[in-house]
Amino acid sequence: MTMSVSGLTAQRSGRIILHPTSLDIDPGARLGLVGSSGSGKSTLGHALIDDLQSQRHTVSHVPQSPDEALDPLRSMAFHWREAETALGLPHDKDRRQQLFAALKIEHGDLRKRPWGWSRGMQQRFVIAMALLGKPDLIVLDEPTSALDPVVAADSMDLLDQFLAGGQTAMILITHDLGLAAKRVSHLMVMDAGQLVEHASTTDLLERPSSKAAKALSAHRSWIELPC
Length: 227
What we know:
Blueprint: E1 3-12, E2 15-25, E3 30-34, H1 41-54, E4 59-62, H2 76-86, H3 93-102, H4 119-131, E5 137-141, H5 149-163, E6 169-174, H6 177-181, E7 186-191, E8 194-200, H7 201-206, H8 211-218
Parallel strand pairs: 3-6, 3-7, 4-5, 5-6
Antiparallel strand pairs: 1-2, 7-8
Helix pairs in contact: 4-5
């Protein structure tokens, strides 16, 4: 079922930071939301999550840093149990092992606290928690910015493989055009709180029409990045 939102807006201190925005998201879609810092990408992402959840769609969020999702004083096992409980899922070791194996963290020691795992493993653990329950949509907000390029590329490759052929849609929020270009079929460009362009990845990179998209695609150095 296509997920739709209409007229999403947001204000801060009396100032509009997200102009009315409407979107349709098909099952299994791979969308990128790009723009410069402060363009309103994350604001749209949060508004989108809130609206879709109010429509009873299941939506998961992967933040920029695993620090935003993991309590440094709690074990990884605690975090996993809490995620299952929050979703009303029974504790299922086989499901956990399937997700961990897909993201190559099956050898992580769940008795340890987050700082006992590498940053890359922490972020993959957060992604695994987001995939619990097979959500309708997973929103990744700058998910690799805290990782080195090789670890980031590996993490995204594993996520791509896990989602392939499924119904879970993905929105990748990033200012890294190279990351988005290699991971999504359509790109949306934000500028000053407005969605100024929405096109297939190929069309937007080759024939950008908005000033913001032209500025992003003009810097071709991103082609060489591994992500």
